[in-house]
Amino acid sequence: MKKVFCLLLMSFFFINCSSQKEFNSITTSELKVLLEQDYIQLLDVRTATEIEDGFIKTAKFADYFAEDFYTKASNQLDKEKTVYVYCRSGNRSSKSAKILQDNGFKVVNVLGGYKQWEKEN
């Protein structure tokens, strides 16, 4: 009985882990090419103070730390189009991407965030 229980428990973890989808990521160099070619949905999830120091043109804004983050973000975005998400260095954008993806958005995380964008541009 103990072996059956362990087997069921391991199966549950395996199924649960494999069912989670990872989102795609791109570099800031790849983002630059996309921005030059076409209009894309670009979401900046930094704070207002961080945005004062600069931002990427055409970005929409929703502070990841705000209580109404998802509401603000989703009200500005089209679920039918891919959303490219960036923050200062990449941590908040990946967390934001997960929230958006879990709610039905197609999401791409921008690696390195605005710090990397500034270095390259």
Characterize the structure shown.
The structure is a single chain. This protein is an alpha/beta fold and 121 residues long. It has one domain: 3-Layer(aba) Sandwich (Oxidized Rhodanese, domain 1). It contains 6 helices and 5 strands; from the N terminus they run αβαβαβαβαβα. Strands 1-5-4-2-3 form a 5-stranded parallel beta sheet. It is globular and about 30 Å long. The model is unreliable at 4-20 (pLDDT under 50).
Q: Which key terms come to mind for this protein?
A:
6 helices, globular, 14% strand, Oxidized Rhodanese, domain 1, single chain, 121 residues, 5 strands, alpha/beta
Topology of helices and strands:
Elements: H1 2-18, E1 24-26, H2 28-37, E2 41-44, H3 48-52, E3 60-61, H4 69-76, E4 83-86, H5 91-102, E5 107-110, H6 113-120
Parallel strand pairs: 1-5, 2-3, 2-4, 4-5
**Can you identify the CATH class?**
Alpha Beta
Q: Domains counted in the coordinates: how many?
A: 1
Q: How does the major sheet shape up?
A: 5 strands, parallel
**What's the number of helices?**
6
- Assembly annotation: single chain
In terms of structural class, how would the helical and strand content be classed? alpha/beta
Span between termini: 62 Å
What is the fourth-level CATH superfamily? Rhodanese-like domain
Provide the β-strand percentage band: 5-15%
Tally of strands: 5
Low-confidence runs (pLDDT<50, min 5 residues)? Answer: 4-20
